[in-house]
Amino acid sequence: MKGQRTQWTVALGLAALLSGCGHEKPPATERPRVFVEQVQLKDFGAAVTLTGDVQARVQTDLSFRVGGKIIQRNVDVGARISAKQVLAKLDPKDLQTNVDTAQAEVNAQQARVQQTSAAFVRQQKLLPKGYTSRSEYDSAQAALLSSKSALTAAQAQLANAREQLSYTSLIAEAPGVITARQAEVGQVVQATMPIFSLARDGERDAVFNVYESLLVEPPGDQTITVTLLDKPAIQATGKVREVTPAVSAQSGTVQVKVALGALPAGMDLGSVVSATVTAPGKASIELPWSALTKDISEPAVWLVDDSGKVSLHRVKVGRYLTGHVIISDGLQGGEKVVIAGGQLLHPDMLVEIAAQPAKGAQP
Questions:
Q1: What is the Cα–Cα distance from 339 to 198, expressed in whole angstroms?
Q2: Which of 90, 165, 201, 272 is deepest in the core (most CB within 10 A)?
C-alpha cells in the first residue's frame, strides 16, 4: 500500500507540473529590423560624358570605274591631296587595244564615206543628162547616208573607248586627306572596289557612339562643348546634327554627330575628343542600390505601411548610377522604402523600423 501511495504522489506531481507548463505563453516572434527611407520626387537630369573623334562631314570611298591591275600608287594614308591629283593607275594595255581598234574602225568608215560621197556626186551629175537611172541615184544616196551613220557610230565607240582608257587613272575630285588604303600595287581589282577613303576638306563633325539607353529623350538644340581629350583647354562648340535611326548590331550603339564650328589649333581630323551632355530634368526618385530587388524578373522595392507590414512593389529603373539607381516610374513620392535589411523579407511580413545610421556610415 505504501508503494502504491508513493506512485500516485509522483504521478499527481508530474500532472500538476505539466498542467502548469501548458498555461505559459510562447515568446513573441522577433520582427526583422530594416532601414527605411521616405522617398521624395526630385528633378533629375543625367549628365553623360561621351568620347569620340573628329571626322570629316563628307567622307568618300575612291575607286576605279573599270577593272584591272594596279601598276602605280602615288599616295599613302595621311597624305593631303588636291583636286585633280592622280592617286593611282591601272595597266592600260587592254583598254588601249580597244581604243586602237575603235580608231581603225573610224578610219575605215571615213574612207567609206568618201567613197560613197564621190559615187553620189557622180550620180547627181549624170541624172539630169539621162545617163543614169533614178534607182541608181537613190541607191548611191542611201549608201552615202548609211556610211555617214556608220561613221557616227564608230566615232561614238572611239569616244567611249578613250573614256574607258581615261578611267585607268584614279583622280581625286576634291581636296582632302587620305584616311584609309584598301589595295596595293600588283593587285587586280574590280570596278567600284574601294581603293582609298578620302576625308574631304570643309566642315567637321565630332562623332560619338552612344548606347541607346542613354538617349532617353532626343537631344535638344543645346550647344555642346567638345574638348580635346589630352588637352582639355582646347575646346570647340557645336550642336547635334544627326542621330542614326538604327542601332548597330555589333556594338548596340547609335551614332551621334555634332556639327562643329571653326576648329581651334590642335584639334584636327582624327583627334580624340569628349563631351558632357546634361539631359533635361525629369521628376524621378533616387534610391541606393541596396533598395532594389526583383519581383520574378522585374525590378521592385519593398514598401512599408504604417503598421509595419511590407509589400513588394514593381518599379521602372530609369538609370543605374554608381551606388544609386534612378526610379523613373512606380513610385509617387512619400512612400517608405526599405533601403537595407530586405534580403529575407516576404510579403505581409511585419518588420521593425530601425533608426537611420549616421550620415556616411554603412547600414
A1: 56
A2: 90
197: its cell numbers: 577613303
Site of grid cell 563631351 = 275
Distance between CA atoms of residues 73 and 14, nearest Å: 111
Distance of CA 74 to the CA centre of its chain: 33
Taking the mean position of all CA atoms in its chain, how far away is CA 295?
Answer: 34
- Give Dmax (Cα) for the chain: 182
215-222 CB contacts, 8 Å cutoff, 24+ apart: 215/243, 215/254, 215/256, 216/46, 216/279, 216/282, 216/318, 216/319, 217/279, 217/280, 218/243, 219/243, 219/256, 219/277, 220/280, 222/277
Decide: 216 and 279 in contact? Cβ < 8 Å.
Answer: yes
CA distances from 135 to 114, 124, 141 (A): 21, 12, 10
Per-residue pLDDT of the chain (363 residues; tens, 9 = 90+): 444 454 544 444 545 444 545 445 555 567 888 888 888 887 666 667 889 999 999 999 999 999 999 999 999 999 999 999 999 999 999 999 999 999 999 999 999 999 999 999 998 888 888 888 899 989 999 999 999 999 999 999 999 999 999 999 999 999 999 999 999 999 999 999 999 999 999 899 999 998 776 665 666 677 888 999 989 999 999 998 988 888 887 888 888 999 998 889 989 888 999 988 766 666 778 888 888 888 888 899 989 998 889 899 898 887 777 888 888 888 888 888 898 888 888 888 888 888 765 555 554
Q: Count of CB atoms within 10 A of residue 49's CB?
A: 9
For the chain, helix, strand, coil in percent to 5 are: 25, 35, 35
**Grid cell for residue 248:** 548597330
Beta bridge partners of 90: 70
Rg (CA), the chain: 44
**What are the beta bridge partners of residue 352?**
33
Helix (H) or strand (E) holding 126: helix 93-126
Burial label for 317, CB within 10 Å (0-12, 13-18, 19+), is: middle
Global pTM exceeds 0.85? no
Give the C-alpha distances (Å, rounded to integers) separating 196 from 18, 199, 268: 99, 10, 20
Type of residue at 245? P
